[in-house]
Amino acid sequence: MLQRLIDDLRRQPPLARTTADMATLLTTGASQWIPRPLIARDGTYTRTFAYGDDNFEILLLNWSPGAPTPIHDHGDQHCWMLVLAGRLQIDDYVRLDAGETPGHARVRAQGSSLLETGGLDLRSGRFSLHRVAATPDARAVTLHVYSGRLDQYLVYDEAAGRCAPAFSSLDDKI
Questions:
Q1: pLDDT tens, 46-78?
Q2: Does the predicted TM-score (pTM) go above 0.85?
């Protein structure tokens, strides 16, 4: 049950734990973290708010087959993403500039991986960039734990050498 995860993180927030502790916490109860059917939209993903306070935020994302994100960072947050169902393609990027000129960013692809059900991905800080997409053969569901509220982050256009602020939006609330 998702409430157990929330209660555990309220007792000891994500940043007070080691990376290994967070991985164990998230993967041990993974089969229980989907509380009910989530809103779904063809061609994209939906974001369902499960919990948030000053120390962490939990979202569930429901991905239609092949649905991608833009290349993005996570603001200044840490983000743990656990695949609850399906598979995700993760394309990693490195930022080549220092981020000193607003609106401009040089990024380059740095590798890819496939996350199966039960797979965990950790992002930390504003230069930890990736693009995520559900594989084209099936829907996917992911659990995201942020080290604080993710209100704003940057999205990147590799070809144009640009970045722009994006603001979190939610499709539903548990």
A1: 999 999 999 999 999 999 999 999 999 999 899
A2: yes
Cα 21 to its chain centre, rounded Å, is 18
What number of helices (H) and strands (E) belong to the chain?
A: 2, 12
Q: What is the span of the domain harbouring residue 109? A: 2-32+50-173
What gap in Å lies between CA 174 and CA 167, rounded to an integer?
20
Q: Which amino acid is at 117?
A: T
Q: What is the Cα–Cα distance from 111 to 87, expressed in whole angstroms? A: 17
Residue with the two structure tokens 């999205």:
155
d(CA 114, CA 133): 10
* Average pLDDT over every residue of 124-132: 91
Q: What is the CATH number of the domain that holds 104?
A: 2.60.120.10
Contact 15, 76 (CB under 8 A): no
Strands 152-157 and 71-72, by their bridges, are antiparallel
Q: To the nearest 5 percent, what fractions of the chain are helix, strand and coil?
A: 15, 45, 40
Report whether 17 contacts 143 (CB < 8 A).
Answer: no
Q: Could you tell me if residue 72 is inside a domain?
A: yes
Contacts of 85 (CB under 8 A, 6+ apart): 34, 117, 139, 140, 141
DSSP tag of 76? B
